């Protein structure tokens, strides 16, 4: 392995990034601007357009060499004006559940659908009990495993209920799917997220219920197994809409065609403001370039901020970026994804050839000075994946994500949940990684 020791003198850069970053915590100002300009910005919505204009303006304001939008078409889905769930209990009692439609769901029939419920925890259990499921709404109630330290793993193990619960429900002859919110929080706030249907198969409406609502429903079903639910959803899918990835860069002085991407995704689920998911990643990318500008650093390789569109319900932005004609003649050295919330950073996941992890660990002492020297082998992220598959190195900003899924895809994902210093620390870390890759290569 070459270059086990970083070039001497980088300690001064660490110190300069740290001072320039924490002195103003400018990432948080960008965050404020973005969520004020576009609090709701699901792909194809008017808010997504506002978010594109707002971030392009930020990139111009900090003095990027190039600011442009690369166009693409995105799927478009709207929540509509109402979404309700009412439990019909014995002796004419009624109770409301806090629910929200899952992204991509079809609407219920006009006036809603009313049906009994069957509670299951796995697709296998549903398969075993499919005779009972016919004509009912399937209630998927498997929680995120609280004993798993890595919350993204726990999320991954539970999210199949949300993403494909409606497919399994329809195959069992059910008329709808109600999914326990995929969150670590125990509260009354439902969490949305992408779901999909199988081509050529029946499409049944799907909604998420809050975790407290799920607990309440489970209790009620034990005493009143015949209770019924009236579900009303007004969501709909519209034709694909024009949109784009927003790009700003500082062009490299020595190797302008060698590109290092630092990225966030601009689209966000519509229930909250997407402050953590992923306005944080976007404004950190802007802040990386601002730090280079403030310190007057002209990198050897091009450092490019990309605000990808449509990460949440289609990943069209990541695919379009990798395939765009603008990529011709460019060589992507590395892509850095920040999409685990704007929390205190710990280091990076590293994805690439087998020796890459060992090569980047030569920089570990510099990152340890910032309290975030952990480099582990692992997935970098959805948007960068198509370009990483073409041979670029992938990095994912790792943070303290114990609370991420409390807010994720819900009305709770608002700017008050983001701490200015923690957000800034992530940007400083990304700036340092961009700098080191730019100066030394990988
Ligand atoms: Zn995200």
Describe this structure in words.
This protein is an alpha/beta fold and 442 residues long. The protein is built from 15 helices and 16 strands. The strands form 2 sheets. It has an 8-stranded mixed sheet, with helices on both faces. Strands 3-2-9-5-6-7-8-4 form an 8-stranded mixed sheet. Helix 2 crosses helix 9. It is elongated. The mean pLDDT is 96. Bound molecules: zinc ion. Zinc ion binds next to helix 9.
Secondary structure topology:
Elements: H1 10-24, H2 26-37, H3 46-61, E1 66-78, E2 83-88, E3 94-97, E4 99-101, E5 113-120, H4 123-128, H5 130-133, E6 137-140, H6 151-158, H7 160-171, E7 176-180, E8 206-209, H8 211-223, E9 228-233, E10 236-250, E11 255-265, H9 275-294, E12 301-308, H10 316-323, E13 331-337, E14 345-351, H11 356-360, H12 364-368, E15 374-377, H13 385-389, E16 393-399, H14 404-407, H15 420-440
Parallel strand pairs: 5-6, 6-7, 7-8, 11-12, 11-13, 13-16, 14-15
Antiparallel strand pairs: 1-10, 2-3, 2-9, 4-8, 5-9, 10-12, 14-16
Helix pairs in contact: 1-15, 2-3, 2-9, 9-15
Bound molecules: zinc ion (ZN).
Residues 265, 277-278, 311, 339 line the site of zinc ion (ZN).
């Amino acid at each position: 392995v070459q270059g086990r020791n970083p070039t001497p003198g980088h300690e001064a850069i660490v110190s300069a990034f740290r001072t320039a970053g924490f002195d103003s915590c400018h990432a948080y100002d960008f965050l404020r601007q973005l969520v004020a300009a576009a609090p709701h910005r699901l792909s194809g919505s008017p808010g997504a357009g506002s978010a594109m204009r707002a971030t392009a303006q930020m990139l111009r304001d900090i003095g990027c060499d190039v600011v442009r939008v690369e166009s693409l078409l995105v799927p478009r889905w709207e929540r509509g004006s109402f979404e309700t769930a009412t439990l019909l209990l014995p002796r004419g009692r009624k109770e409301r559940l806090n629910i929200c439609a899952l992204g991509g769901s079809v609407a219920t029939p006009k006036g809603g659908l009313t049906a009994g419920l069957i509670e299951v925890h796995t697709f296998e259990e549903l398969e075993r009990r499919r005779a009972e499921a016919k004509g009912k709404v399937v209630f998927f109630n498997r929680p995120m495993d609280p004993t798993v330290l890595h919350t993204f793993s726990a999320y991954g193990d539970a999210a199949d209920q949300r993403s494909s619960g409606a497919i399994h429900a329809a195959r069992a002859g059910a008329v709808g799917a109600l999914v326990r919110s995929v969150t670590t929080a125990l509260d009354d706030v439902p969490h949305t997220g992408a779901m999909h249907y199988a081509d050529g198969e029946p499409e049944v409406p799907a909604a998420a219920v809050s975790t407290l609502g799920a607990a309440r429903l489970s209790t009620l079903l034990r005493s009143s197994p015949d209770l019924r639910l009236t579900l009303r959803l007004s969501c709909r899918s519209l034709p694909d809409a024009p949109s784009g990835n927003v790009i700003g860069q500082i062009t490299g002085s020595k190797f302008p065609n060698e590109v290092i991407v630092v990225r966030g995704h601009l689209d966000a689920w519509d229930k909250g403001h997407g402050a953590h998911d992923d306005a944080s990643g976007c404004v950190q990318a802007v802040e990386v370039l601002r730090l280079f500008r403030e310190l007057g650093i002209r990198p050897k390789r091009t450092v490019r901020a990309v605000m990808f569109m449509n990460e949440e319900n289609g990943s069209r932005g990541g695919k379009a970026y990798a395939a765009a004609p603008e990529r011709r003649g460019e060589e992507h050295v590395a892509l850095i994804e920040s999409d685990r919330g704007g929390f205190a950073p710990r280091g990076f996941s590293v994805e690439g050839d087998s020796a890459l992890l060992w090569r980047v660990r030569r920089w570990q002492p510099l990152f340890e000075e910032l309290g975030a020297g952990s480099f582990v082998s692992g997935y970098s992220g959805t948007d960068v994946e198509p370009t990483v598959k073409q041979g670029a190195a992938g990095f994912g900003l790792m943070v303290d994500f114990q609370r991420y899924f409390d807010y994720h895809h819900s009305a709770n994902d608002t700017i008050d949940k983001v701490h200015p210093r923690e957000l800034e620390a992530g940007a400083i870390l990304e700036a340092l990684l961009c700098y080191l890759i730019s100066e030394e290569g990988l």
